[in-house]
Structure formats: C-alpha cells, structure tokens
C-alpha cells in the first residue's frame, strides 16, 4: 500500500464568523470544527496528517496535543493562498509519503466513506491528481472544473477569474484532492500569484500536470452537502445539526429509542446502550457512557458521566461528571455536581443537590436536600430538607453517615461530623457532635403552647 498523508488547510481566521475565536476551533457536536475532517481522514486510512496553521495556532495545537494520532503542524504565517499553504506543508510530510490527501479544516461534513472511496479511485486510476467535485444548481463562489473531451480535468478557474461562459459550469471544486507527492512538491514551488486575488492558487497545479502530459481526474461526490464549508454562524448551526443527525441515527440504528431525534443533542464520543429511551430536549456531552434500558427524561443535561443499566433520569435533571451504578433514579429537577458516585438503586429525588458524595446501595434522598462532601452508607434514608453544612466560610468539611441510618426531615449536619450505623436523627435536629451507632440524636427547643394567645392579642 502506498503511504498516504493528509494535509489539512486551517491557517485562515474565518472573518465571517465575527468571532474572537479562529473559525476551525468553533465546536460542533462536541468537537472543534477541524477535528471532524482530521478524524475522517484517519478513518479513511491516512497514516499521518499535517495541519497548516496560522491564526491562533496554539489553540489548534493544544486540542490535538492530547490525541494519540500522528498529527504534525506546518506554520503559514501569512495567508497567501491555498497553493502557498500546501507549499508550507510539504517539508513536514512524513518520510515515505507517496500520496497526499489535501482537505480543508472548515468542511466538517465530509465523511470517511467519501474520502476513502476517492482515495481508492485515485489509486486505481493511476492519475497524478484527483479532485473531488460536486454539481450545484448555483455554483456561485466556487472554482469551476474545466474538462477535456476525454472527461479528464484540464483546469480549475476561480469565480473571480472566470469568463461568463466558465461561470455557467455547474461542476465545482470541492477543495479536496489526492495528489502524487513528488509531483506536488515540485509544482507548488512553481506557482505564481498572477490572478484576480493575487494569491497562490493550489488549483493551478492542474495546469502544470496537464502541461507535463499527466492525468488529472475528478471524483464527483454523491451527496454535495458533504462538501459545504462553514463560513458563518448560520452554516455552523446547520452543519452541527447535520452532524447531530448522523450521531442520533447511528444510536437509533444500534437500538436506542429517541422520542424526537431532532430535539436531542448528543455529542460525538457518547455511547448509549440498547433499549434506552431518550426524551426531547436532552443534552448529553463529553465522554458520557449510558447503559442499557435507561430512561433519560425531558430536558436532562448530562456531561462526562457514567450511568448504569436500568437507571431513570427524570425531567430537568443535571448530572456533571457523575458515576451512577445500576437502577439509580434521579430527579425530576435534581442537580448532581461533579464527583458523585451513587451505588445501585440509589434514589435522588426532586430538588436535591449533591456534590462529591459516595452514596451506598439503596440509599435515598427523595426531596429538597443538599448533600456535599459526604460518605453515605447503604440503606440510608435522608429526610426532606436535610443539609450537610460542609462549609465554614474558610474550609470544606466531611460528613459520614453509616449504613442504615434514618435521617428525619429538616436536619442539619454540621461537618465534620459522623453518624454511626443504624442511628436515628430526629426531625429538626442540628447535629454538631458525632452520633454513636444505634442511637437517637435529637436537638430541639421544647415546644411551648400558649393557649388563648391569639384571642388575647386580637382584643389588645
Ligand atoms: C478554494 C478553491 C476553490 C474551491 C473552494 C472550495 C483555490 C484557489 N480555490 O477556494 O476552487 O471551490 O476552495 O471550498 O484553492 N487557507 C489557508 N491558507 C491560505 C488560504 C487558505 O490555510 O493562505 C485555508 C483556509 O483557512 C480554508 C481553506 O484553505 O480552510 C480554503 O481557503 P479559501 O480561502 O476558503 O478558498 P476558497 O476561496 O473558498
Ligand atoms: Mg472557502
């Protein structure tokens, strides 16, 4: 197999985004724009990729720094055109590269299947260059593809340089190419900028190839939507919608039910088991893993979490960096802040907030409670209105509640404090000292009833 390397053009700022952030780093469905074409190229079989970076290159480098793929960078300090960008990339191609797959960082919809098919056609044809093309009823703005009688490509003419007759051509340059490396290395050195935009056009290498009697062919993409680039925020939203549609479709095909897939927002990298039902308005982000047979209620927001089989997340709940074991029930309207591990069959009910807690099997906090920095055993009942007072204004302190404790309603646990196993905390108690096992803890001001008080007040 010939060694295939990708060159991804991503040096431009993308001024039409009207953003402080460089265009290719705007996120779509959980990954920056440039991550999509790069991933598609690797999935299509490239061995390495060179990213041509310029504006905010540190941000692009930062993103790929954590990846395990072979990605390197070529700096194009000044954006002098696509041909110049590729010229900058050539010295960075890995040794032994035979074929270069060139693509743009702002076309997130290109699929690995399309790229792979194009590479195959290129290798089988023996062409020096294969350019991906698409047919548009309105080709405005794109480079037009000129062809000879034998159907081979003879030139690409940019909109601004084209004659009226050339502008009528509907087959456009998608900006994706397979090119013989040795030819390309020489050709990009010979480019000039004698054109309407005074740029070094990559497309001009075609004229050189034709002049040398080499074969240039086209590969027409089946779905022209794949090549649409993102230039502004309208196209960003539209492309993100399409990417989410693909993610949702894949999940549904693998056995996930979505009540209304158009209203479900799931990031790349999320996995969901079969027979899980996702209701409308749900957002799931990060490397979240959801098991089988779960129900994710309307408006739930789940990020970077693990949720075990058979769990039910009711409407409006927010779960951040949580680890939920099997058959856990959350919500409605519960908030799990980062660092919570809930064992099997735990129940966290309405208007409960938790943070950095471990809660043992079958324990419950069903209503209106705050549990933070706490270790809670198995079979514990936390009554309505319980608060772990974990913060003294300076430091956070820990609360420990051992197995089978019953905490009545409206209890404050002033941390650091420990409640021994099988104890009962009476409703309304403020726990300030440790409770031994098998005890009753009660702290209440004795109630006083003043009979007739209201009548006397009323008479003055
Ligand atoms: C280019 C093609 C055009 C094609 C279109 C498809 C040329 C001369 N024209 O035009 O035929 O129809 O793409 O979308 O190639 N970039 C750099 N450095 C530069 C210039 C561009 O990195 O100096 C990057 C941009 O960030 C962008 C990509 O290359 O990701 C394409 O550049 P752009 O200016 O959008 O090219 P088009 O004019 O659209
Ligand atoms: Mg463009």
Descriptive account of the structure:
The chain is of the alpha/beta class and 460 residues long. The protein has two domains: 3-227, Alpha-Beta Complex (Spore Coat Polysaccharide Biosynthesis Protein SpsA, Chain A), CATH 3.90.550.10; 257-441, 3 Solenoid (UDP N-Acetylglucosamine Acyltransferase, domain 1), CATH 2.160.10. The strands form five sheets. It has a 23-stranded parallel beta sheet that branches. α1 (35-43) crosses α4 (112-125). The chain is elongated and about 105 Å long. The structure holds uridine-diphosphate-N-acetylglucosamine and magnesium ion (MG). Residues 9-12, 52, 76, 79-82, 84-85, 104-106, 142-143, 156, 158, 172-175, 201-203, 229 line the site of uridine-diphosphate-N-acetylglucosamine.
Task: Write the topology of this structure.
Elements lengths: L3 E7 L16 E2 L2 E2 L2 H9 L4 E6 L3 H9 L5 E5 L6 H8 L9 E6 L7 H14 L3 E7 L8 E4 L5 E5 L6 H4 L3 E10 H9 L15 H7 L4 E5 L12 H21 L3 E2 L6 E2 L4 E2 L4 E2 L4 E3 L3 E2 L4 E2 L4 E3 L2 E2 L4 E2 L4 E3 L2 E2 L4 E2 L4 E2 L4 E2 L4 E13 L4 E13 L4 E2 L4 E3 L9 E3 L4 E2 L4 E3 L2 E3 L4 E2 L4 E2 L8 E2 L11 H7 L1
Parallel strand pairs: 1-4, 1-6, 4-5, 7-11, 12-15, 13-16, 14-17, 15-18, 16-19, 17-20, 18-21, 19-22, 20-23, 21-24, 22-25, 23-26, 24-27, 25-27, 26-27, 27-28, 28-29, 28-31, 29-32, 30-33, 31-34, 32-35, 33-36, 35-37
Antiparallel strand pairs: 2-3, 6-10, 7-10, 8-9
This protein binds uridine-diphosphate-N-acetylglucosamine and magnesium ion (MG).
């Amino acid at each position: 197999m010939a060694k295939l390397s990708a060159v991804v053009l991503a040096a431009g700022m993308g001024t039409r985004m009207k953003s402080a952030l460089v265009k290719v780093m705007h996120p779509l469905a959980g990954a920056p724009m440039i991550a999509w074409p790069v991933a598609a190229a690797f999935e299509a079989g490239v061995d390495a990729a060179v990213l041509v970076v310029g504006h905010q290159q540190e941000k692009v480098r930062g993103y790929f720094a954590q990846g395990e793929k072979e990605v390197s960078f070529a700096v194009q300090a000044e954006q002098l055109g696509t041909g110049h960008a590729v010229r900058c990339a050539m010295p960075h191609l890995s040794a032994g590269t035979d074929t270069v797959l060139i693509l743009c960082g702002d076309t997130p919809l290109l699929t690995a299947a399309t790229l792979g098919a194009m590479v195959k056609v290129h290798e089988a044809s023996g062409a020096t260059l294969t350019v991906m093309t698409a047919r548009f009823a309105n080709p405005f703005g794109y480079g037009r593809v000129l062809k000879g009688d034998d159907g081979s490509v003879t030139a690409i003419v940019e909109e601004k340089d084209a004659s009226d007759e050339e502008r009528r051509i509907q087959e456009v340059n998608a900006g994706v190419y397979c090119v013989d490396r040795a030819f390309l290395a020489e050709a990009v050195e010979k480019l000039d900028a004698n054109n309407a935009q005074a740029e070094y056009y990559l497309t001009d290498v075609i004229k050189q190839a034709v002049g040398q009697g080499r074969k240039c062919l086209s590969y027409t993409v089946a779905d022209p939507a794949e090549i649409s680039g993102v230039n502004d925020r309208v196209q960003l939203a539209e492309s993100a919608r399409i990417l989410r549609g693909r993610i949702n479709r894949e999940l549904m095909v693998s056995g996930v039910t979505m009540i209304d897939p158009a209203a479900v927002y799931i990031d790349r990298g999320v996995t969901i088991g079969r027979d899980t039902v996702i209701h409308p308005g749900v957002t799931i982000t990060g490397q979240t893993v959801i098991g089988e047979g779960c129900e994710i209620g309307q408006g739930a927001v789940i990020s970077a979490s693990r949720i075990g089989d058979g769990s039910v997340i009711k409407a409006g709940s927010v779960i951040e960096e949580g680890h939920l074991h099997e058959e856990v029930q959350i919500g409605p309207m519960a908030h799990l802040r980062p660092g919570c591990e809930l064992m099997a069959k735990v129940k966290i009910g309405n208007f409960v907030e938790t943070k950095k807690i471990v809660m043992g099997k079958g324990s419950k906090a069903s209503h209106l409670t705050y549990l933070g920095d706490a270790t809670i055993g198995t079979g514990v009942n936390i009554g309505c209105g319980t608060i772990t007072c974990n913060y003294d204004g300076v430091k956070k302190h820990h609360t420990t509640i051992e197995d089978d404790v019953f905490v009545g309603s409206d209890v404050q646990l002033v941390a650091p404090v420990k409640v021994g196993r099988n104890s009962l905390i009476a409703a309304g108690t403020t726990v300030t000292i440790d409770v031994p096992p098998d005890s009753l803890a009660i702290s209440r001001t004795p109630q006083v009833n003043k009979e007739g008080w209201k009548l006397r007040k009323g008479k003055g």
